[in-house]
Amino acid sequence: MKKVIAFALFTLIICISCSRVAERDFFRFPMTNIEADCPLECLLIGEDTLSGVMTADCIVRDSIIIATSRTDHLFSISGIGGELIGEYCRRGRAGNELLSALPLTETYINGTDIYADIYSPMDTKLFVWNISKSLSENRDVYESIIRFESKEKATLQPWMSLYRTDSNHIIVYNSMQSGYSDGLVGVPDYQVYDLESGTLQRQYGLFNAVKKETENQLLSPSTFLTNVDCIKPDRTRLVFGMYFMPVFCILDIKSGEARAYRLKGHDGIDLQKPHRHFVDIQANDDCIYALYSGEEMFKEDGTDVPDQLYVMDWNGHLLCRYSMDRRFSGLSLDGEKLYLTHYNGAAAVVNTDTLKAGL
């Protein structure tokens, strides 16, 4: 996800002749303006408790840290104290190896074991990784490797996220970059795939093909629709926050109904002075936790504005918001512990009971 955002920022930089874009034009579903009427409270984070092991897109589950690795393996697993347990998912061309992989967006429990689904875009394969057995046997254990049909290779290109909706289906956020590279307007979309057949089952059609011509090129809708997302643990809904807009959206996975919520009083899309808004998002069955910035990017003074932490419910209500003393790069939720990570590998921890006290 961080690489996708970096690419989107580069695209914006070279297209400074653009100005403002109407946010509502991107969405095919209703948008509601919401007031930030809850007070902005100060959240004292304290010193970082972890150092050197937390990547921006890491996952903490049952007090183990699963992070991307730059070695000949794709992922490393560490204890919560920072000690390395092992490295897993070897890179390569053998049958049980991966040429590439999307960053993990979730882990889940099947029986008593912890699992993660790893999608390799270059192989068009989904590796069902049994993390618990890999740890106990100290080797890569894949329960299955799902091969997608060649006719689906042009469409199965998850851009930044992949989640299980049930034992046989996944929902992905597809960038549709293949169409755009062929001169078409590729509009990103959420899609559902069947894991038994490897075929596309459903497209939600959430977004419009809003085009913005510049002096040099046409900006892809993928640039504007960069987002961060998280699935509700009961698998019924998905929340996504827009990186370039002060907008978060909630999708009912079964019905396909969606609604956008626009934060009043925040700057919208302005490509001459772009702002970053929703940086990362996590959720449990009760609340949504969003790392929010609102800061103008590429400021001349070079100063950093501390981030905020927003807490919403699954009906789109803003419950509370907190100012923090510094910037963070990501979130990971493990039970009642919310980890706020830095790009340098450090992390701070907040107990969600502390946040509930503000409700």
Give the topology, please:
Blueprint: H1 2-13, E1 31-34, E2 40-42, E3 59-61, E4 64-68, E5 73-79, E6 84-90, E7 108-110, E8 113-120, E9 125-130, H2 131-137, E10 142-147, E11 158-166, E12 169-174, H3 177-181, E13 189-194, E14 200-203, E15 212-213, E16 218-219, H4 221-224, E17 227-231, E18 237-242, E19 247-252, E20 258-263, E21 275-283, E22 288-296, E23 308-312, E24 318-323, E25 330-334, E26 337-341, E27 347-351, H5 352-356
Parallel strand pairs: 1-20, 2-24
Antiparallel strand pairs: 3-4, 4-5, 5-6, 7-8, 8-9, 9-10, 11-12, 12-13, 13-14, 15-16, 17-18, 18-19, 19-20, 21-22, 22-23, 23-24, 25-26, 26-27
Overview of this protein structure:
- There is one protein chain.
- The chain has helices at 2-13, 131-137, 177-181, 221-224, 352-356, and strands spanning 31-34, 40-42, 59-61, 64-68, 73-79, 84-90, 108-110, 113-120, 125-130, 142-147, 158-166, 169-174, 189-194, 200-203, 212-213, 218-219, 227-231, 237-242, 247-252, 258-263, 275-283, 288-296, 308-312, 318-323, 330-334, 337-341, 347-351.
- By secondary structure, the protein is mainly beta.
- Strand 3 (59-61) and strand 4 (64-68) form a beta hairpin.
- Helices cover 9% and strands 41% of the residues.
- It has a five-stranded mixed β-sheet with strand order 1-20-19-18-17, with no helix packed on it. A five-stranded mixed β-sheet has the order 2-24-23-22-21, with no helix packed on it. Strands 3-4-5-6 form a four-stranded antiparallel β-sheet, with no helix packed on it.
- The protein has one domain (2-356): Neuraminidase (6 Propeller), CATH 2.120.10.30.
- The protein has five helices and 27 strands.
- The longest helix is centred in the first third of the chain and has 12 residues, at 2-13.
- Keywords: Signal.
- It comes from Candidatus Cryptobacteroides merdigallinarum.
